[in-house]
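Appendix B: complex inputs.
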Amino acid sequence: MFESAELGHAIDKQTYDAEVPALREALLEAQFELAQQSRFPVIVLINGIEGAGKGETVKLLNEWMDPRLIQVCTFDRQTDEELARPPAWRYWRQLPAKGRIGIFFGNWYSQMLQGRVHGEFKDAVLDQAIDSALSLEQMLCDEGALIFKFWFHLSKAHMKARLKTLKDDPQHSWRISPLDWQQSKTYDKFVRYGEHVLRRTSRDFAPWYVVEGVDEYYRSLTVGRILLEGLQAALKAKKRRNTQAHVAPVSASLDDRGLLDSLDMNLALSKEDYQEQLATEQARLAGLMRDKRMRRHSLVAVFEGNDAAGKGGAIRRVAGALDPRQYRIVPIAAPTEDERAQPYLWRFWRHIPARGMFTVFDRSWYGRVLVERVEKFCEPADWLRAYSEINDFEAQLSNAGVVLVKFWLAIDRDTQYRRFKEREATPFKRFKITEEDWRNREKWQEYREAVGDMVDRTSSTLAPWTLVEANDKRYARVKVLRTINDALERAFERD
Amino acid sequence: MFESAELGHAIDKQTYDAEVPALREALLEAQFELAQQSRFPVIVLINGIEGAGKGETVKLLNEWMDPRLIQVCTFDRQTDEELARPPAWRYWRQLPAKGRIGIFFGNWYSQMLQGRVHGEFKDAVLDQAIDSALSLEQMLCDEGALIFKFWFHLSKAHMKARLKTLKDDPQHSWRISPLDWQQSKTYDKFVRYGEHVLRRTSRDFAPWYVVEGVDEYYRSLTVGRILLEGLQAALKAKKRRNTQAHVAPVSASLDDRGLLDSLDMNLALSKEDYQEQLATEQARLAGLMRDKRMRRHSLVAVFEGNDAAGKGGAIRRVAGALDPRQYRIVPIAAPTEDERAQPYLWRFWRHIPARGMFTVFDRSWYGRVLVERVEKFCEPADWLRAYSEINDFEAQLSNAGVVLVKFWLAIDRDTQYRRFKEREATPFKRFKITEEDWRNREKWQEYREAVGDMVDRTSSTLAPWTLVEANDKRYARVKVLRTINDALERAFERD
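Resulting structure:
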């Protein structure tokens, strides 16, 4: 894998000096075009052998291009805000917006390689990290991102010579290597695991470029040209690659019996039973949220459901159990400008709670496979791939100790009609009913199918869907609270 | 100050039950109207005596209103990201957007009171904290925010009884008081300093409301009504209060000699001198940024100047001295949607660097007193008050160890004309020149006046302006670098 990057590639100064001016101009032009189009972000990952010119190259790129449109991100020690959340959170918060270039120094690859080289974990965990990296990159590319992955390489002999030079140079001797590169064992391990990682993560949508770092001119020109050609091609392409959507219908139930039909919509609670059970479950939730074991977890609850199914009321009963300092409710509406400049899941990652905290999403990332699918706000290819992106996302939450509960509040058409009419008649509820609600109602059957597919494709033991029979609001509220409590208890027991 | 809040105010359950439904409806209506208008944010500060019902009231407000449009923020222990920045940063990052309600629990008042009560500082420092709080609130109100400040009060006897009840109640005994309220000395001090703070910070634009907390019904209804009436009044007012702009012209130089005329625009460097001095200053900057003393500081550089004055080139020479991991360049363009939903300075606070780091602003918060003034994008009242807001902002940075350097790059009209023409003729520079640049050029004289006022009103030893004679790019670049280096050195020497 690294053979041709140990040949001692070099070019002479004359050739370099002759080529650079045109390259710089072209890079600047491409960068400007990128900003003008603001159609996709560029993510440059910098990895490789210590001393192979990673830092110098990043510095040079900032000199060649307009540094105002580049953000260089390092991911060294995690801050305590990062440590309190799933590992990927720190990368999401630093993603460049469309039209910008983000250079990720010390990214997910350096993290997995350092961990493996230092023996913090075994190959199986390394392979899991590789899988996560691939899913992340696949998703970023599907969202339009252009990813460059550079591996700066040096043969062992060259590395040793280079580290010696750096050490003797007062301008550089202050640097501290993140790994103890002086040991030749470190180099061997790094190359061995590096090869494994590169082999598994070089894909058509985000290939690795291995660049020999021994000669400054060679390495700079190589990186510059790869960037330029990649950028130009992506800028010219009318639309970024889009996978062909699968043609078979997603929901293929021949007898027209859906998941929602299996619900017993007559389930109800008497007023007395409700008051007693509500009080019990609210006290239980308050207790669980104060439990010491909660410090290792956070809680995320997703509320989806038919219009007028009583999401707001259920959320209020959940909130009512708690100290307002423990939770945050995030209503999901149309994305803002900043959010539109980022991948779809970005605006949900923003609100992932720190350990000990609770976020309620009033509507959620499932919008893509519900309203966006039914209303055709996105292509079938987009909502089809959303299922697996969502599963990956939720697996990351779950692996990091986030307890995730997801509710679909279901009512039947007659109940919805009655509630719509009621809302129109009540002064302080009028704002809850709009023309759009009546229009959505026309698409009852399409939503029904979309919900069925959603549950089939995204319900798992890690993050199960709970269908809530919500014709009776009392029954629904108690079921929601009880489900959250059971999920928290199960998580605590597993600890 | 607290006399009438120690009378033992109470109302009976019947009255309470009769009043609450209408109050809730009205609050919901007002809250919805607030969200619809999205014209201003509401900030609710919660302070007062331990055990006086602060937490319960916040919980109740979340039950009465739509909790999806309320965010409750606590400011307990600072995270390390917050500790690395000026103290106010943590408040700015949590400000509610227009249309939303933010409840600040443990805000700037609790911080200053706890510090004083615990003897961490003396009265003089408390008074400084009060001044900062007032400036912040004044600014927020001028930007349209509606601020409610609630002080929940209890007489000493009531407090003692209340704490005892809480302790004996298993539902509450887990709570830990932030101050050792069991000591009667603590109460006395808290009340004494609280009175001082309230007296000094109760202003027309953000008055304090002292609410006796002993009776739950009384306290809840009082807070609910104050909120409702305040909200309704603010929603009805066509425009939030706006101070009358001072009528006298700001720049009143009768002989038409401005600050910019005093510059020697012939200053220049030969190519050899330039290369030598540039290399020296770049090495000096690289060394200073690596200096251990830099860990206590961060660096902010502001670049303003005539169009085509060479800001970009100067910034590149500064960046060229550094490891790209140490700095971030923030180009300031039109604000995004998220930014427009916040006070003017919010989008600059976002980018204030952590200790050890460097942010370059390519254009800055001075836009308000330059382009927005000249192009009449805002009212005279707005840009007139911006001077003092900016001075406050910069004083906060400076007090927190931020080294701030501000450059105005000045060229004369002929030089600008020549550079515009040159840009039009160079393919990869064409994007740097637009119709707008030519239009701005027509307003040369107005900009000249605005710059003079800006420097007169915002240049101080804490944050001096440096006027840079930029007809000769070489001279300008070296002067910029040298100025930054001198500022860093001075800051290090003062440590």
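The mean pLDDT of chain A is 90.
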